[in-house]
Amino acid sequence: MTSFGEVLTCNDENHPDLFKALQVSLGMLGIIVKVTLRVIPATVLTYESKRLSLDECFNQLAEFRDQYRNFEFYWFPHTDTIQAKLMNEATNQLPGNRHWRNLNQMIMENALFGALSRVCRTIPSLSKSISRLSAKFVDTGKDIGYTHQLFTTSRLVRFNEMEYSVPAELMETVVREIHRLVEKNNYQVHFPIECRYVKGDDIWLSPAHGRDSAYIAIHMYKGMEHEKYFADVEAIFRRYNGRPHWGKLHTLQADHVNALYPKIEDFKKFRQQLDPNGMFLNDHLKKLFVNELQTDRNEGNYGQRYSDECENGAEVI
User: Fold this and answer.
1) Where are the domains of the chain?
2) What is the CA radius of gyration of the chain?
């Protein structure tokens, strides 16, 4: 629903360009009132967790990325240790009882890690030692479960997070640069750095628009100073054409947005046409899109054009 009250039906056939703009639109184009999803059958996956060194991981990076359905790894700051998580579709196997696995996750990844995090907040100088302790107890087990069982985890330990997408082929380059930065500046951080791959897409404001991407996320426990650490790592992301995860911390400005997203001007035209008075803009979005194109009102707006289309038989929800 646009700021004019019109309801538009958008898909690959109806308003296809607007459909691509809407898929990641940060709420700027209107209110989504109905969604039709195309889903796939529930999938059973095998899961394996390995403890490796950074070099071992990077030597197998292409293999892990290409031979597994899903692959991500976590590097523990102040160590040379990573946890690699590898998943593939199971063959003729079904999940068993997951009670012990879920209990272990709650104890190790929430209760114990939460207690260690509170220690770090009280005595930040212990962060390096606790990161090294965590690396020694990396889970190296195997599991099998449905996708919703393996991908969803309880996260009771609160933190601040920044995540950027860079071109997939730069994963090793960027992580190694962050590694050198952490070693040089000795940040008081104990949260592991999360690294994963995402296939490229054609969604206009998607961080993976037009390129296969490596997503790299940094974290800091709530209440601990994170500004310097995040700013220094963000500078690395920026050097490699990084695009932020829109729902996490970043300091992007309008000029950065313009340089990073090839379809940004087309998006801004839709934004101006659908919401010329800024009903759906907040202070954060104004900072990112403050220099948007000022479409001449005489050109008309999308809402009015849509009303005209309705008279000629356009589909209405």
Assistant:
1) 16-37+255-311, 44-250
2) 23
